[in-house]
Every structure is written in C-alpha cells, then in structure tokens.
Amino acid sequence: MNERAIPVLDEREFKAMMTRDPEALHRQPCIVTGYIERWPAYSEWQCLDHLRATFGALAAFAKAPNFVTNIRASLVSVETTFEQYLDYIEHPERVEQIYRDCWLEGDYASFKAQGLPLYCGTLRLVRAATDPLFDLLSPLVPEPMQPLNASLPYYYSLFNHLWLLVSLPGSLTPLHTDNNGTIALVSQLAGRKRATLYAPHDLPHVRNPTVGFMDPLAPDPVDHPTYQQAVRWTGDITPGMTLFIGTQWAHHVTTIEPSISVSFDVVDATNIDRYAASKDWARVFGERVARQPAVAAKLGLDPEALVACDPVIIGRRAMQAVLRASLAEPGLDSAHRQARQRYLAGIPVEPVSRTVDA
Ligand SMILES: O=C(O)CCC(=O)C(=O)O
Which residues of 333-355 are buried (b: 16+ CB within 10 A; e: fewer)? Predict the structure, then answer.
C-alpha cells in the first residue's frame, strides 16, 4: 500500500504554500501548527468544568461509533445532555448508571459488545454566522485563507458546520466524505487524534457503492479489492495543530488520548462552486420551504407546483430567489456581493416541474 505522512507546516509555510497555489489543500492535506493558540477558546475550552458551565444544558446524541458508513457496521446511541456526556467522559466506568433508560439504538449490552466509547458528535453550538461564539474562535483560519461562510445565506442554519468534540481514547469517526463540498478543519485543543485520509480520485478504491466505506484499520479485500492502489495519508494532531481536509477527501479519525477538538467547515473561493452545486444544503432548504407555503410564495415559487417537486430543485430555486433579492440591495457589502454572485452563478438551473428523484 502507498503511504504518505500528512505534512506539518507552520503558519508562515502555510501562507507561502497557499499564496503560491490557493488550490493546494485540495491536492494534499496538511496540518498547520500555532494559529489556534490565539483563539480565546483555545485555553478556555480545555477545561471540562468550563465546558460544563457553558454548554452543559445543550441536548445531543452520543453514539458508538460517531456514525456508520458501511452496511456491515452497527451503532448504539443515547440521548444525552452535554453535561451528562461530560460526566461519562470523566467517569466512563459509570456508563451504565449515567445512561440508564437513555439508549435509543441498542442497549447497554450491545454497547459493551461493540467495544467503542460513546462519542458526542452532534452538539449544535451555533445557528448563525453572527453568533458571538465566533469571537472565541478568531481567526477562524490562518492567512491567506478567506472564508466566505458568513456571506452564504443560512449557512449555519441549514447544516451544522461547527462541532465541539470531547472524546475518550478509542472513539471512532469512520471513513467518510463531508456534505456540501466544504473544506473540513479539525483543531486540537487537548489530547491526540489520528487521521487517515484518501484523495477524491482514490474514492473508488475505498468506497464500494453497495457496501460503503472501507475500514482503513482492517481493510476488507473482498469488499474493496483495489484498496492497495489508494494512497493512505496519515497524521496525528496534538494541541495547537489543525488538520486541513480538502473537498471530497475521505477521512477516518480515531482518538488516541483523551481529546478536545473543534471541527468546522469552510467555504472559500476554491470550493464555493462545489458548495453551490451540492444537493445537501439544497435538499434541506427545499424541504423547509415546502413545509411553509407562505415562504415559498414570498420567494416567487408557486406552492401548488412544489407538491411533487424534488426538494433539491425547490431548495435551489428558493436560494436563487434569496440571493437575487440580496444582490438587489444597494447597500450590500462588497465582499458579500462578490461571494453571493459566485454562489448564484454556481447553483445548477433546473425546471421546477421535475418530480422527485427516484
Ligand atoms: O474528529 C473527529 O472525530 C471527526 C472530525 C470529522 O470527521 C470532520 O470534521 O469532518
């Protein structure tokens, strides 16, 4: 098998690489050191008591593993508050008491048989780019990256794009690609995680359309007969490091030491076209609009015509209407204007009469 170590760069080296070649991180992943140490959250969020006091009341799900991406994999899950989850993180031996009557998928016996820690990867911290929480994560990316996240209407409301991940050794995020064509960043505040990545052009070797993604730690040569042709990129992230994962790169992450990380998605000039063309946000937006005929009508969509229409098409039409209305505002900030023009230009145009995809 071909192996490559994910290169580790300091901020200066990252800036030089990205200035020379803004598409560089879609061609190869990298780990950048240093810049997150300037975040107010960097030290504040290393303290579990602080996290308990700040986010403890939020409801979430914890799962083992984080989710599944292969039909042969199984999952157990509990409904939890973040406070209860932090109790589990501090006292994993008390899991049976902490999660008595909380099992959603599986139960305590299947959790024990599974042999993986519960992993809370569903905590939703923000729903808008204007959330003051972003002040704690500033600068969100190192120079010269310029995120367009805040210019994309409903970016943080249609999907979660920011995760606080507290995990025990052994916690698993299986191999997957992210929705919406985003660039993913995983910033490490405490402990160690190990990442394994595959390039988009290697996906046919590590994803079988009928079975799902391969387990890079135990490849199945029957399900993934050409897996040895893929290049496996690996790297560990420790406090102060951020892993950059380009659009459509498959990634698998295991926790090696008790860990706290912040993971978030970025859209910039290098992937806004792929974000715009993605069906993921469009489906969620379309379903939302279809449930609200008054909103559809306000956006110039005929609620009657939407009944049998593919939600992706509804979402795209609705977003085009939102973007056109915003671009018609004379006072619109020029950075928002430029980003929204690119977004609008990248949304595929389809007739509204097409019915739901089979
Ligand atoms: O850190 C992890 O466990 C998973 C992070 C991840 O998969 C992501 O940010 O897309």
Answer: eeebeebbebbbeebeeeeeeee
In this structure, how many other beta carbons lie within 10 angstroms of the beta carbon of residue 200?
14
Could you tell me if 112 and 96 are in contact, meaning their C-beta atoms sit under 8 angstroms apart?
no
Is a pLDDT exceeding 80 seen at residue 358?
no
CA of 158 to the centre of ligand 1 (A): 19
**Burial class of residue 252, CB neighbours in 10 A (0-12, 13-18, 19+):** buried
The stretch 346-357 carries a mean pLDDT of 69
Distance of CA 308 to the CA centre of its chain: 30
**Which of 165, 243, 252 is the pocket-test mutation for ligand 1 (most atoms within 8 Å of CB)?**
165
CA–centroid distance, 186 to ligand 1, in Å, is: 6
pLDDT digit string, tens, across residues 268-314: 999 999 999 999 999 999 999 999 989 999 888 887 878 889 999 99
Closest ligand 1 atom to the C-alpha of 193?
A: 1
Contact between 213 and 70 under an 8 Å Cβ cutoff? The reply is: yes
Which helix (H) or strand (E) is 342 found in, with range? Answer: helix 334-346
| Domains of the chain (ranges, CATH numbers) | 2-53+119-273 (2.60.120.650), 278-346 (no CATH)
Give the distance, in angstroms, between the CA of residue 264 and the centroid of all CA atoms in the same chain.
6
If 0-12 CB within 10 Å is exposed, 13-18 middle and 19+ buried, where does residue 296 land?
buried
Ligand 1 neighbours by CB, cut-off 6 Å: 66, 165, 173, 178, 184, 186, 193, 251, 253, 261, 263
Measure 220 CA to ligand 1 centroid, in angstroms.
Answer: 23
For the range 33-38, what are the long-range contacts, defined as Cβ-Cβ under 8 Å and sequence gap of 24 or more? 33/8, 33/9, 33/240, 33/241, 33/242, 34/10, 34/240, 35/11, 35/139, 35/141, 35/142, 35/242, 36/187, 36/189, 36/240, 36/242, 36/262, 37/240, 38/138, 38/139
Q: pTM to 2 decimals?
A: 0.96
Pocket test for ligand 1, best of 67, 251, 266 (most atoms within 8 A of CB): 251
Q: From atom 9 of ligand 1, which residue's Cα is the shortest distance away?
A: 263
